[in-house]
Amino acid sequence: MTHDELRAVLPPYAAGELDEGPAEAVRSHLATGCPDCLGALFRLPVGRPRGRWDVSLPRAGWLAPATAVVLAVALATLVGWTIYDLRQREAERRAEGARAAARLVDAETARAEATARSDTLARALEAARAEAAEARAAAGVAAGERTRLETELAAAEARVGSLLRSIRRRDAEIDRLLGGAPERTLADLAAMPGLGVARLEPRASGAGRGHLLWHPARAAALLYVFGLPSARRAYRIELELDDGRVQPGPAFEPGPEGDAVLPIRLPVVGARLRGVTVVEEPGARPVLGAQLGAVPAGG
Predict the structure, then answer these.
(1) How many domains does the chain fold into?
(2) Domain for residue 185, yes or no?
(3) For a Cys staple, 286 with which of 60, 203, 221, 245, CB 3.0–4.6 Å?
(4) Are residues 170 and 202 in the same domain?
(5) What is the Cα–Cα distance from 180 to 298, expressed in whole angstroms?
(6) Are residues 24 and 56 in the same domain?
(7) Is 99 part of a structural domain of the chain?
(8) Is the pLDDT of residue 253 over 50?
């Protein structure tokens, strides 16, 4: 219905003679605060006139206060919706900030571990090369012994190459995680208090290690594990809540080196989480676990 069509049906609307469908359209348009239509409506008599010629008009001084009241109500409604929209956007920004902070902490932890392993492997490679050089320089070493040493060196270099390729894949994953957040956002997240990091302790021999990143005000967490036995094995998360219930979490399979990064959607906010256990399937055998306090320091 156009603006002119609405103006045409204002008289029957004021007299109460308009059908419900068109009347609802008129009410919706008047709720937007249109001053022309509101002024025209207030100049019309309300209800059916008592006689054909007995039609009284409102007093001239009554229109301005009524228009001011309607405009004030419309303005208050607009301000209310604006405040609600701003609060929704702020909540979304904080949620995205918590997720980026979790990714940042995990990426930095993985980078430090990869750097340490890379230094160890580089020293091992240098030692293997030095040993091979000494073996070649020894004039009295038999040809068979030299062949054996060269074979061991080649095997060692192949193992080192495989490990270095694994480290490069992990570095690429770290760069991908870090590349998802702008520099300023990362700086803000690093200063954000309340993020908790819990160490996952082994519950069985050879069970690997890991960490859980969580926030007391968020219903999400991030699990990072490494060193798990991965050959054809599946694992599952169990969540212990503050009321004593144990909720099943997502299942996962680790990578070739027994590592995995797993986002977890919690059934409650992090402040109500009391423990996390990684169990091996089938049989639900615990392999890793952590107990959480009520709220981390600074939360």
Answers:
(1) 3
(2) no
(3) 203
(4) no
(5) 26
(6) yes
(7) no
(8) yes
Tokens, residue 253: 């399979």
Q: Residue 171 belongs to what domain range?
A: 107-178
* Signed CA dihedral, 216, 220, 224, 230: sign only: positive
Q: Give the span between the Cα atoms of 1 and 3, in whole angstroms.
A: 7
Tell me: do 232 and 276 sit in the same domain. Answer: yes
Q: With left for phi above 0 and alpha for psi between -120 and 50, is residue 244 left, alpha or beta?
A: left
**Most confident segment among 69-78, 116-125, 286-295:** 116-125
Domain end, chosen from 178, 212, 235, is at 178
Q: Which residues does 26 contact at the CB level (< 8 Å), separation at least 6?
A: 6, 9, 10, 13, 18
Give percent helix, percent strand, percent coil of the chain, each to the nearest 5. Answer: 50, 20, 30
pTM above 0.85, yes or no: no
**Single-letter amino acid code for the residue at 31:** A
